[in-house]
């Protein structure tokens, strides 16, 4: 899939600059013969390089396959092995790389990060190594990351094959093997004992082989965690905090990254927050509806969200302790409220520590209508005092109406209509329930009543 690239500089000029002419120190000429020899040496050094046309061909190949012209000079200068490489070998190397399904951007990335892929012997060795893995449908991204990593860590195809055998012995699926090899260094996978102990921790909570494979595919990063310093203390906390194995298994299947990425002691801190929070019973039931471990993961999600916007962990836990309703709102809703606080209200994130109840109210129904009223009153000069966060969050709807909306009738449409006090409704009286049914009088009934009255006279 060659791509023609228009060049601004002549190709010969680019290649000529890459060839460094050796410099000779200035010496005192002792004789005429030495002067002639020195002259011939300089003349031969300044003569055209016999490999110059070969370099032009290699540079033309690289440009044709999309290699940036601005990087070509530096690339050839650094990789002097190209002097002894024929253009046909370079073209064969590019053909092998393209046979893996790489696109132009991936090809340029591999050539830049691992120039040895232009060595035919090196690339054929990896081509054989990939074919002997016994895996179906090698993805281009897997090939690219493997070749780029081998340049940094000097890994060999034997290391890759040994790692694949370790995972196959643990019944990993091909999909999980590709994912792990792309994300986890081979040195970690080659240590079969340490790698197997990490898998045994997952199986210890009742996970089956296919479920372990699925978790490793979703979050292979946990395999890079230290076994004794990170993973064993985490699973020890799960056992010490009396979480049921089926609850742990369910949490690992639903959100493996959130649970396995917890730091030591973070889980117990989340559980302490849940046990100490004070809120209405319906809210607490809603928070704990999926179990305590799932609620701990929800706490971690919201703490990470607040810390990502600038709060420290202590203040983030304080916000959740004062306003537990944050745990029943979706993360998208919380992000939307924080963006509104920072961008629209032009306040800093630390205001949430003073007004955590801002995250517990409805943005569209409470905050935005009140802000629209305040902005309208400011525009007409109807405010005689400063309006702060407490007026938007902590005033009841009726108090806000009486204070800001009632004196200005035009604000009623902005606020959302007139707020009226609900009239007390008493229960229906017994006389209404037992009142006899009323029937209409017919002509025959009227005639009978008249005859009855006449008989009395």
From TrEMBL:
It holds the Pfam family mTERF. GO terms for biological process: DNA-templated transcription termination. InterPro entries: MTERF, MTERF_sf. GO terms for molecular function: nucleic acid binding. Keywords: Transcription, Transcription regulation, Transcription termination, Transit peptide. PANTHER family: CGI-12 PROTEIN-RELATED, TRANSCRIPTION TERMINATION FACTOR MTERF15, MITOCHONDRIAL. Belongs to the mTERF family. This is Transcription termination factor MTERF15, mitochondrial.
